[in-house]
Amino acid sequence: MSDLSNTAHNKVRQAKDLKYQPGFSYITWLALFILYAPILILVLYSFNANRSVVVWTSFSTDWYVKAWHNEGIQSAALISLEVAVIAMVLSTTFATMAALVTTRTPPYKGMNISIAIINQPLMIPEIVTAVATLIFFAVIKKATGANGIGFLITAHTVFCIPFAYMPIRARLEDMDLSLEQAAADLYASPLMVFKRVTLPLMMPGVLSGAMLAFIVSVDDVVISLFVGGPGETTLPLYILGQIRRGVTPEVNAVSTVFLGISVILVTLIFLFGRPKSTRPEKSQ
Amino acid sequence: MSNQSTFADIEKSQLSASLVTANKRAQKTRALLLAPAVLTIFLIGILPLSIVLVYSFLEPGSYGGVKWNLSFDAYIQLLFEEDIFEETLTFNTAYLQIFWRSLSLAIVATITCLFIGFPMAYFISIQSAHRKNTLLFLVTIPFWTNLLIRTYCMLLILRDQGALNLALVNLGILDKPLPLLYTDFAVGLGLVYAFLPFMVLPIYTSLEKFDFRMVEAGSDLYASRFKVLTRIIIPIAKPGIAAGCILVFIPSLGAYITPELLGGGKSLMIGNLINLQFGQGRNWPFGSAIALILMVMVMISLFVYLNRTTRNEES
Fold first, then answer.
1. What is the ipTM of this complex?
2. Judged by CB atoms within 8 Å, which residues 235-294 of B form the interface with A?
3. I want to staple B19 with a disulfide (CB 3.0 to 4.6 A). Which of A195, A267, B15, B293 is the partner?
């Protein structure tokens, strides 16, 4: 018995050696270093007491305090939050409804076209979408005299839909249909099946989708730059403006906080999206 | 298609009247559920593209916007410069150079990402399950974090007083800082930095289900490691490689933030040129024309990609 497992073990090791390609591990570690080193330097600078942003003097959290009290940053953060939350709610709702149709009904003619339309914002370069939206909204604004942040929110909702749609569809496709069928067999009305079975099971996908939509909206620069009117400066636009004027330590502090929040959200999505921990059997 | 409809016909004839009405109701719910997402994207994401086409054939208004007169100036302006006094056209390559720079930088960035991303994806795919997850997580984080801030980090590194120059001067390799920022090199590096995860993830996906006994079989038949790589692993990973290349190439070609921060006024790409026309330039028709040409370039690369992948599936 021990002999057998020993030879098996040897075989596994051998197979692993065969899979090995020279140099690949170095490239991987080096690339990961290059991906993360610039971010670490930003974090380091943000805690530097010196204003010159070149020489390290001593550890300080002054720039965080200054950034916190900066009115420009405060209002930009609030606008970003407002736009992202509304765009997230709208796009996640729309995407959930669409995903239910595309995964729960047999394919028909209109469906493939619908899926293609939903994925369309991913295909076109952001800057082209930005130009098209700017012109379209300019025409509407001129014709109706309407104005306001609603336009920016609408533009964000459009490009958030496919990002919210992806994890929700993946989750629904992964789910076991027999649970819903069993509920229907036990005389649950379609609405009841949805409320008691489908919705709780698909929740991890919906949450991932909502968080992705939020991240994509909060991160956006190009479309906000074109579509955002005066006084609709989102946080990335504020940061971009500051960078153009020259590097300031306050921007380092805001950027670090911004990155930190994104990393937390991505970590949550990663945990939600893990196939093993979210199998339907476990989550009842 | 025809098969489906005949099947539906037979089915329909067999169904009782009540089931038909139920079916109709289901169709209605389906349409109602799909409508918000599909209509929003169609009305605000797709329809305006046709307005861009119209605008590119109009005259620019004096304070942005357009005058409704048919004009081909936007397209002529791309290639020729008009002399206001003599009213003659002279060939001008300034804009063509920007297109050429964008195309070549996007190609170089794609190839560089491939040469770094493929080994990464392969290395990740042969790790133990736990390590695999950690490495994938490390690649995914930059994928979803703010591109503007990541590019800004790169700027902090490449500046004259940036981390890289500081290190090189302090180590005695350089006498004075090398001007790295605002060059094509900086933009190219920024593109690779920005879009590398887009290459790794699809290649990893295509290798994820790879049966590594094939590698054993190959080496049993006296194939060298290199031969196993080129004859077995790369062909298996081909769909992932193609997808990764298109995912890096398209955003690189239309990049705005990277050349804006790292290229400055010296290394303009198509994205900056478009932005200029809607900002300082106030020439919306010209901006629309450039945006359309960019979209056509993207469509062509997508078409080539789809054509290739479907042909590969057939063979």
1. 0.85
2. 250-251, 253-254, 256-257, 260-261, 270-271, 274-275, 278, 284, 287-288, 291-292, 294
3. B15
